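> tool_call: predict_assembly(chains=two)
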Amino acid sequence: MRVLNPLLIIWLVLAVGLQAAKLEFKDQLKEVNAPADVTTVTTDFEFTNPSDKPVTIAKSDPGCSCLKVEISGGKLRYSPGESGVIRATFDMGNFSGTVDKMIALWLDDDAPEKPSMSLTVRVHIPILVGLEPKTVKWEIGGSREPQTIKVRMAGEKPISVKTVSSSSADFSCELKTVVAGKEYEITVTPREMNSPGMAVIRIETDCELVKHRTQQAFGVVRKPTPAAAAAKP
Amino acid sequence: MRAALGQLAVIVGISLAAAAGTYWIKGAPARVLRCDPSRLKPGELCLQQVPLDGPVLWVDARLRKEWQANGLPGSVLWNLDGAEDTQAMEAEAALRIVDAPRVIVYCGDENCGLSHQVAEKIRALQLAEDVSVLHGGWRALREAGLIKDSNRTP
């Protein structure tokens, strides 16, 4: 038994050494409320190496060209107890609503297909021009009943709809002002119900922010879906 | 102490011999993607659950340059890249999606969350009734031999 004690100690030391060390983050999910007029959003993920051996960030992948990742000025190896920051800069582009972006992190000898950590940036971007619904649908052979898309402006300043156009002559669009600068209705009517068709409905507004200025909705005439067909007697 | 080290050497030797034997008999560790239908996230499916001869529209959620280089033939691009003209891309994809009875979105691999976000956008637009995400993404398609690298738009 006296012989086994040092052996056990050596084995335990080796076993501990074999465990993969990880970085400890204050938050792995960061939520940011972005103003509508900003073009980029930056958030920092602070971390520490709580293990007793150095950890190297071998690779990071933001999975989107809209997200830039910087790691503490390029420093990738962290001694025990050492801290660092991963800075994520999100280019808002044409995004709106809630957007989740994930950063995968490969530490030390992580397999290429298995990063050991992931970070999420959740950005809430105001929807200044809201459409409901974004798609109006009819079934082939059905009724040519017009359908309405409601347009609601969410910003503090009024936003007016200037023009509405359909990409297809098979769909007509009619704009109605409910409350000027705040609320509008677009009535869409298909001209042909005997064959499939689709139109992209473009809504041009006078919104100051270019990325919110033009919106689009869809008008579709298509075959009954299996679910709809099954629901019929 | 010498005895302990001797024992350690024996244990290490036996372990190495066992590992070498396993490698010789069974080969190198398998790094192929495995998909267990019982462990999928909501809205996901395994490639083996997809009837490949059935009418499926594949949506590639990766970057345009990746789609152009090695996207699945017949697939359509729909990503969340800020560099894209989002509305033009959505309109182009929507034209194909409305005619598809089944839409499956893929991105790079099982660690990529983009396909779920794109699938959610397609569902929100109510363009298709059946929208799923392929577990393992492009990697699963490549391992199944469905991807052929090329420099042409799929």
